[in-house]
Structure formats: C-alpha cells, structure tokens
Amino acid sequence: MSQNTFAGMAGACETRSDASRTGQIRRLARIALLGAGLVAFLPPALAGEDNLSSPTGDVVLTVTGSIKRTNADDRALFDEAMLAALPQKSVETTTVVTDGVRRFDGFLMRDLLDYLGADGETVTASAINDYIIDIPMEDFSRFDVLVATHMDGQRLQPSDKGPLWIVYPRDDHDALQDIRYDYRWVWQLVRLNVE
Questions:
Q1: How far apart are CA 72 and CA 35, in angstroms?
Q2: Is pLDDT larger for residue 173 or for residue 17?
Q3: Cα–Cα distance between 91 and 70 in angstroms, integer?
Q4: Which of 2, 79, 88, 91 could staple 55 via S-S, CB 3.0–4.6 A?
Q5: Contact (CB, 8 A) for 76 and 70
Q6: Within this chain, do residues 190 and 113 fall inside the same structural domain, yes or no?
Q7: Which string of b and e fits 28-58 if b means at least 16 CB within 10 Å?
Q8: Are residues 70 and 157 located together in one domain of the fold?
Q9: 95 and 26 in one domain?
C-alpha cells in the first residue's frame, strides 16, 4: 500500500486524537489489505471480470439465455476446473434412484446463476440423453440445490449420471418429497437456459 494511501487515510481522521487516528489507520489498512488479498486468491474465472475466462479443458456445461457474464458469444462455457473454482458444498440425502443416504459434492445452483448475473423466472435444464425440464428459479433460493460433480467421493461419470447431476436436499424438507421435484433431478446435465 502506498504512502499516499496511508496519508489519505490519516487525513480522513485528522480531527481525532493521535491514538484514535493511529487505530483508525491500522483498521483501514487491514481492511484494504484483506480485500486485496481475497481478490488475489480468487481464480480468474471468479475474480470479478465482466466476462468469464475461456475453458482450457473439455466443456462440460453450457449456460445460455438471460445471463450477463459470457465467454463465447452469448453463452457461458465451463470446463471442470472452472466449475471446481466455484464455492463448493456437500449434501447428504437419499434419492429415488439410489440406495440409502448418499453424499454429493459440487456447487450450489444459485451460486452459479448469481455469478453469471442470471435474471429470469425459469431455468431449462437439458441432459445428454435429451431429457429437458423447466425448473422455477425460486427453487434455487428456497433450497440448497446442488449441481453435483461427485457422489460418495467418486467423480460422476457420463455412464453413471455424470458429469453433472442436479441434486435437491430432499431429506431436509418435507416439500421435496413431492414427486414433481423428483423430475427436476437432472443427471447427465450439459446445458442450462435462463428465461
């Protein structure tokens, strides 16, 4: 941090006593350094740029529609590394297609959509096998809906519901026992469109 920055901070505190002024400068310097440090540690795809960085690996997810951040025309293309850079979360729940409680790791759908600046009422999710369903955007604020990349510590593969699987925390909410939510568990997810 430059001497001018410290001088500016000191000027803002000139009416306080010397001890108070010194304490204020230290607090402001700590806040400024912490903020700079956090930005420095963010991956390029999440560092606050208007556009996303381009994927360097195979594209596993494409997001289109009403989004603000893109990296290919009006689309946001993600490889595994870019998705791994999103804040990670785990959910333990039963499913209607597996036995017992399973642990799913991945990222929250709302984090992805917030990062992209998505603005809409519906997200259309599409799978490798051409399964398509509309999901109300409110689901993602109401529930911790996960886009799972792993189940029980193992990377999801296209041969077994991967590379991405939309997972609802069904054991945490009575409302999620309703069968209509089961249709929203899109496995082999490859595309999202926000409208």
A1: 30
A2: 173
A3: 28
A4: 79
A5: yes
A6: yes
A7: beeeeeeeeeeeeeeeebbeeeeebbebeee
A8: yes
A9: no
Are 118 and 179 found together in one domain?
A: yes
In whole numbers, what is the pLDDT of the chain averaged over residues?
83
What is the rounded CA–CA span in Å between residue 88 and residue 157?
Answer: 19
The residue range of the domain holding 138 is 46-194
Report residue 65: phi and psi, to 5°.
95, -140
pTM over 0.85: no
**Three state DSSP letters for 67-90:** CCCCCECCEEEEEHHHHHCCCEEE
Together in a domain, 17 and 57 = no
Q: How far apart are CA 91 and CA 103, in angstroms?
A: 6
pLDDT band at 160 (very low <50, low <70, confident <90, very high): confident
Residue 35 has pLDDT above 70, yes or no: no
